[in-house]
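Submission checklist for the structure archive. All mandatory fields must be present; incomplete records are returned to the submitter.

[x] Identifier: O-methyltransferase
[x] Organism: Nonomuraea maritima
[x] Residue count: 372
[x] Sequence attached
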Amino acid sequence: MTGDAPSEWAAAWQVLAPVADLVTPMAVRVAATLGLADLMAGDAVPVEELASRCGADADALGRMLRHLVCHGVFAEPEPGRFAVNGPAALLASGHPAGMRARLDLDGFGGQMDLAFAGLLHTVRTGRPAWDEVFGAPFWRHLAANQELSRSFDEIMAGGDAYVADAAEEYDWSGVGRVVDVGGGTGALLAAVLGAHPSLRATLVDLPDTVERGRRHLAERGLDARCAFSGQSFFDPLPSGGEVYVLGRVLHDWSDEDAVRILRRCAEAAGGAGRVIVIESHGGSDDDPVAFAEMSLRMLVLSGGRERTVVDYAALAAEAGLEVAGVRGTPRGHVLLECVARSQLAIGPMCPGSLDHPDGGIGLFGGRCDRTL
């Protein structure tokens, strides 16, 4: 042991302590769950009044808020009176950041985080922690809990705007009908149908979600141009579409299940149809932190994983498809256009796509316009 050891430990602790702490992350989530930012709108509020409004113990609530104040979330302008500051404002209902829904312990976002209490189980067994923590596989648990399912759809709809943005990169000319497989409440279809008046669509998802999608599209005057199929995408899919879209679906599933989903799309698309895969990452070097975190989240929740372009191409090949073109989007999504092997013209792939050693590094710097 050297005389420098304590200072070395101190430096290491500065790195380890923030990532090891559970007190502050849980306090933020409790504040979101109780709706404290909403209750403090306007002037500072006495802690006793806050406790009465949200059904909490005043002493315990005060201790938690003082801890958060020490970390820059909320303010205490006078002893015992608390107010919203800049960071705390993000926790208000209706804020565009959507943080309250994401952190609410009674909703999907908070439950997703609580599933990490079973991470040791996942690391030891390779199986999802969700099953261990909540007593049922993720999708079955979601289907049995309507309020949790609604919360899931709400959070997914926030991300669907990015998928809809990715869909703008695709050339829809000549497409008569698009089938959005696992399309949630229809955010992608709303964007595509709104931009292409002659296009027709089919939304495929579980029945409760499809009904919410029907209302979402009806509010935009688009439901008359869309058919709705409440079903599992492991069952045969509606035929008649020229394009079948999987928008951020495959990363939820294991390789085996992802191939099953792709096969269903390939069957429905037939020899002349196309399958479009939209995912958040094209390679582990695009954003290594986000890639690693999301891959772990998918494993803990449902046994899924993040993948590179090469990984998705391999899954497509198992399903009888070939990747005919790849394109990156400004927001970091990757689009893969897959066709039946018999469709694919013999010719070189687009530069910087599948032949790259990481299956996607450098992909987003240019556009591949040969097929997409």
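[x] Structure attached
Curator remark: The domain at 109-155 is CATH 1.10.287.1350 (Helix Hairpins). The CA atoms of residues 161 and 187 lie 6 Å apart.
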